[in-house]
Amino acid sequence: MNIGSMELRHLRYFLAVAEELHFGRAAQSLGLSQPPLSVAIQQIEGAVGAPLFTRSSRGVQLTAAGQAFVPAARAVLERAAQALAEARDVASGEAGSLRIGFAGTMLYRGLPLMLQRFRSEHPRLKLVLCELSSSDQLLDLQHERLDAGFVHTTQVPEGLSQILVSSQSLVACVPQTHPLARARSVPLKALADEPFALVARDVSPDYHSRILALCGAAGFTPAPIHELQHWLSVVSLVGQGLAVALVPAALQQSGMAGAAFVSVKGAQHDWPRYETHCLWKAGRDNPALGLFLSAVREVASGG
Questions:
Q1: What is the tens place of the pLDDT at every residue in 161-212?
Q2: Burial group, residue 296, by CB count within 10 angstroms (0-12, 13-18, 19+)
Q3: What is the pTM of this model?
Q4: Which end of the chain is more exposed for a tag (fewer CB within 10 A), N or C?
């Protein structure tokens, strides 16, 4: 036997003899007869290339090589035990890591509560957060670069499972210095003929086209249009007096300086809702993901 073929049981046998300094008692503690134990120790000594014990009428003693081998053997067994425990915990979902994608508005729509609840219940599971646009999340989910994502869309691609996390209205966002800033509600057409900000088409094609369709139905085409990468950037631009916008209602919680939020007069039930779905690739065997999705469902249902 060489070092490469040595098994963990050989290390356990060696440590039993090293602790007992008696082959008979060591064999008894291991549930073996003495001859197989003696053979195993001889095999280990052959692999090491040096005797590990001296045997005499006075008993069994560790050699210098044996004394040096004790901590090394213990370390190997401890690492093996840790690896087994880690594998069991990952298999049960109690350890490991998850990559979670999100778009910025989720910071004001339940994501912090989901994370707090999940981390308090599963402290050994690591969550890696990735702020990405909805379109980037959909791509990463399909290629399994994300375990789950919070995506703003009403069109969930085939092959992805979903939980509806929130459905909110769109509200007008105007500068605080704007004449409409203190109105209880405004007609959408009142935003015509003003610079208009919204998320870029390549970031959120669904809501980009829907907002432009709403403006068209109200009788105007926004011009000029400022296209930005994040909803928070949209609100920031409005807050600096450079545009008006239609934004998800949750952004009222952003506290962005200079921006005012006003409901839209005459918004009907057939107006598109701003929906957020938690998405993941269907059929994934990942117990940790299952635990995370349970936390999402609990918060989404108001539990």
A1: 999 998 888 999 999 999 999 999 999 999 998 999 999 988 888 888 989 9
A2: buried
A3: 0.65
A4: C
